[in-house]
Write a structure and sequence with these properties.
- Helices cover 69% and strands 0% of the residues.
- The protein is mostly helical.
- The protein contains nine helices and no strands.
- Helix 1 packs parallel to helix 3 and helix 3 crosses helix 5.
Length: 181
């Protein structure tokens, strides 16, 4: 299955098609070039968009988070960055009723990212991800918070995810401090 078809199947409104595409995704991520990650991330965004019911959403979020364990270190960082960039770009498409489920997904994905970083035992990777997360993902190039994307609650979740994973105990997310001002 090529990347374009897989992305379309991930965003399908039919549940069996989406589930089949999600099952094929880990093997596909091993062979696909990194330039195709953006298309897959778009598919995952709409995959979760069509996920209804708390049990299904929890299972789907767990499956999405499980993708990070099957990738190499470089591919993991690139895929996580790409996924968050796509989510930030499409954040305005989320309607009021789906907003909480997406915030939950972002929280779960952040937790999975930090667990993977902890498993790698790399302070360099941790520092890089924190710098990238604060400066590029939730803000502009200067590190200031932007109004686009999951800005209001996610930096607080990021701090909790860092503390729960035991990477740094005294982390006060800079973005959360700026959000309170």
């Amino acid at each position: 299955m090529d990347t374009q078809q897989l992305s379309r199947d991930l965003g399908s409104i039919e549940t069996p098609v989406r589930q089949k595409a999600l099952a094929a995704l880990p093997a596909h991520l091993q062979t696909v070039p990194r330039t195709s990650y953006k298309r897959i991330a778009y598919g995952l965004f709409f995959f979760y968009y069509h996920s209804d019911g708390l049990t299904n959403q929890a299972n789907d979020a767990e499956a999405i988070c499980g993708l990070f364990t099957s990738l190499s270190r470089a591919s993991f960082v690139f895929f996580a960055r790409t996924m968050f960039e796509v989510f930030k770009r499409l954040w305005h498409r989320i309607d009021y009723h789906r907003l909480n489920k997406y915030l939950g997904l972002v929280k779960d994905v952040l937790r999975a990212v930090y667990k993977r970083i902890r498993a790698e035992k790399s302070q360099l990777l941790f520092d890089y991800w924190n710098k990238y997360l604060c400066a590029k993902l939730f803000g502009d190039d200067k590190g200031e918070l932007s109004s686009a994307g999951p800005v209001l609650r996610v930096p607080v979740h990021r701090g909790r995810a860092v503390r729960r994973c035991g990477l740094q105990r005294d982390v006060e997310p800079a973005a959360a401090v700026r959000a309170r001002v």
